[in-house]
Design brief:
The complex is a heterodimer of chains A (112) and B (116). Chain A contains no helices and 11 strands. Chain A is an all-beta fold and 112 residues long. The model of chain A has no long low-confidence stretch (mean pLDDT 93). Chain B contains no helices and 11 strands. Classes of the chains: A mainly beta (112), B mainly beta (116). Chains A and B meet through β5 and β9 of A and β5, β9 and β10 of B.
Chain lengths: 112, 116
Amino acid sequence: ELKVEQNPLFLSMQEGKNYTIYCNYSTTSDRLYWYRQDPGKSLESLFVLLSNGAVKQEGRLMASLDTKARLSTLHITAAVHDLSATYFCAVELDNYGQNFVFGPGTRLSVLP
Amino acid sequence: SQTIHQWPATLVQPVGSPLSLECTVEGTSNPNLYWYRQAAGRGLQLLFYSVGIGQISSEVPQNLSASRPQDRQFILSSKKLLLSDSGFYLCAWSVSSGMRSNQPQHFGDGTRLSIL
C-alpha cells in the first residue's frame, strides 16, 4: 500500500525566511503534484512534476522531484504572509481507478 | 476548457435527514470522478471514486453512497445523516485511468456540510 508522508505537518515561520517542506512516498512513481489550500477553500494545483529531476518554480515557491529517493521538496524563499496555507503533495500511480494518493498536508503560517 | 461544478456550497441539515450533493464536469469525456471528505483542519479522506457510468468504488464503509448516472455527473447521497457526517466535501475529476494523465486532479469548490 502506498504511503505518502509530509514533513513537517505544521510550520510557523517569519516573513523573509526560507524553509523546505518534504514529501516522501513509499512506492515507485514519477508523477507528483503539489496543491495549495487556503482556509475554507478548495485545492488549487500548484506544480506538476513528471520526471526524475523535474524542477518547477513559481514566485517564491520551487518544487523538485527525486524519483530514486522517492522524495519531493517544496522550497519557500523569503516567505511572505500570503503564502500562509496548507500544502498537499499527491503521488499518481498507474492503477486503474484510485490512482492519486495524498499526503496529510503541511499547514504553513507565515508571521509578520 | 474543462470545468467542474459542485453544489450546494453550504448546507445545514438535521440529524437523520437525507443528503444529495451533485457534481458535474464539462469539457471532457469519460473522466475519473472522486468524492473526498475533509474534517476541519485535517487531510483528505477518499470516499468514492468512479471510472465510468454506474461504476462506483467505496473506500470507507459508512452511511454514504455515490452514483454516476451520466458520464460527467457524480452524486453523493445519504438516507440518514449522522453528526459525524459533518465536513467539507470535495468533488474532483482526472483524466481516465489506463493512460498516463500527466495532469493533476481538478477540484470543485466544495460543499460545507453542517449537521445539527
